[in-house]
Specification:
Number of domains of chain A: 1
Number of strands of chain B: 8
Distance between the termini of chain B: 33 Å
Largest sheet of chain A: 5 strands, mixed
Shape of chain B: elongated
Distance between the termini of chain A: 34 Å
Radius of gyration of chain A: 29 Å
CATH class of chain A: Alpha Beta
Oligomer: heterodimer
Order of helices and strands of chain A: HEHEHEHEEEH
Shape of chain A: elongated
């Protein structure tokens, strides 16, 4: 049986842990608010961009390298993870989906390369002896557009050079604070839009200024940037949400533990008082006799 | 047949404007263009410039910083790097920016020239758009 002092010590320890988790939850909550507004601001822009592009790509044929569908042999995936831990299954979920993605395509003539954002992916893959083609870290919290441009330029360069035929990005999308979903989305090449049967008449022809080619060569790389940017923002909001939930749970567990320990402490105290009383009563009885 | 245009202005920092309007005038890379309902489908890049819309008898102005415009028979979608409503423009700040850019241009270091020129361009247009509001 633990002594009173031992139990007391443990209660103090758990209490201070609880203070930390509580503080971390608060920090995550405020970061989440920031990340969430930023993400919500970005959503309409990237959605519209996609819409504009699909009408452009539909009439464009194979005018631009980013539109050309090549036989898929070299596939690249970009996984977005966090730099720091303590966010429950946030990173594990991503890596699980990534591994499944790889396993599904392994064999045959596929070669799959991985690039990653965030330290966690690098650590995870290192343990499994999988090499990263490229990785970017230190983006969380202070995401700036030039970082995004670096990533997208690197991917586009490799793509146009023919080193890869398809690029996917795997990231957490922010549904609600309690719920984030891992999705795999295709970055390059642009999917041609689905021909819907109920489309009005025949597709109208577009006028382009300066020229279709010119617009494409500006818009397509820009779109890749915007899609990556959006993915990063979603991922960051999800990360903070996951961390907040994790810390909330930790605080709750710490609270439960304190309650249990207090109960144990009181029981032990009661037992020692009873034992003392027995001693005294015993002593008195002995003196009487 | 559409008799109104839905004007949408979106930037990476959110939805700036959305409304049904009668006419839109914007400055494209090949020059200014006007859009009325039932325009043919049209896609262009935008310069730094002013965007004007007319709704009934009321008009509004925006400062648009680069971007793209997609025009359809009943809609105009502007994807801009940034956009500001004329009444939200800080003219004093823009005027300071003009001074700064002009000074930098005088020193004329090659690398900075392009940056300074476009900064000057932005500031000048901003003042122009901002004053539109004041006159009104």
């Amino acid at each position: 049986m633990a002594t009173l002092r031992d139990i007391q010590r443990r209660i103090t320890a758990v209490k201070s842990t609880m203070q930390i988790t509580k503080a971390m939850k608060m920090v995550a909550a405020s970061k989440l608010r920031k990340a969430q507004t930023r993400m919500l601001e970005m959503r309409p822009y990237s959605d519209k961009m996609k819409a504009v592009l699909s009408s452009l790509a539909g009439s464009g044929g194979e005018l631009h390298p980013l539109l050309v569908q090549r036989p898929q042999q070299n596939v690249e995936i970009l996984v977005l993870t966090s730099d720091r831990g303590l966010c429950s299954a946030f990173n594990t979920n991503i890596m699980k989906v990534a591994e499944k993605f790889i396993a599904e395509r392994k064999g045959e003539n596929y070669s799959i390369k991985i690039s990653a954002v965030g330290k966690k992916a690098a650590e995870y893959l290192k343990r499994r002896n999988i090499e990263l083609r490229n990785s970017w870290t230190g983006l969380s919290g202070k995401l700036v557009y030039s970082d995004v441009r670096n990533i997208s330029n690197d991917l586009i360069e490799n793509y146009t050079a023919g080193a890869m035929d398809e690029v996917y990005v795997i990231y957490n999308t922010f549904k609600t604070v309690m719920n984030q979903e891992v999705i795999v989305s295709k970055l390059m090449p642009m999917e041609p839009p689905q021909q819907s049967d109920e489309s009005e008449d025949e597709p109208m022809s577009f006028i382009y200024e300066p020229s279709q080619q010119e617009i494409m060569s500006q818009l397509l790389p820009k779109n890749v940037e915007v899609q990556i940017f959006r993915a990063l923002l979603e991922s960051q909001a999800s990360e903070e949400a996951a961390r907040m939930t994790a810390m909330e749970n930790a605080t709750q567990s710490a609270n439960d533990m304190i309650n249990r320990l207090t109960l144990q402490y009181n029981k032990a105290r009661q037992a020692s008082i009873t034992a003392e009383l027995m001693d005294i009563v015993g002593g008195v009885e002995a003196l009487k006799g | 047949m559409a008799d109104k245009l839905t004007l949408d202005i979106v930037t990476p920092y959110g939805h700036v404007f959305t409304d049904e309007v009668d006419e839109v005038i914007a400055s494209g890379s090949e020059g200014e263009f006007g859009v009325l309902p039932n325009h043919i489908q049209f896609l262009t890049t935008l310069n730094i410039g002013m965007l004007t819309y007319r709704k009934g008898s009321e008009t509004g102005h925006f400062f648009v910083n680069w971007g793209y415009a997609e025009v359809g028979p009943d809609k105009v979608t502007i994807l801009a790097d940034s956009a500001e409503k004329s009444e939200e423009i800080d003219i004093e700040r823009a005027q300071e920016a003009i001074k700064r850019a002009e000074e930098r241009l005088k020193k004329a270091e090659k690398i900075d020239e392009i940056r300074a020129t476009s900064a000057l361009d932005r500031a000048l247009t901003r003042v122009q758009v901002g004053e539109k509001h004041q006159i009104k």
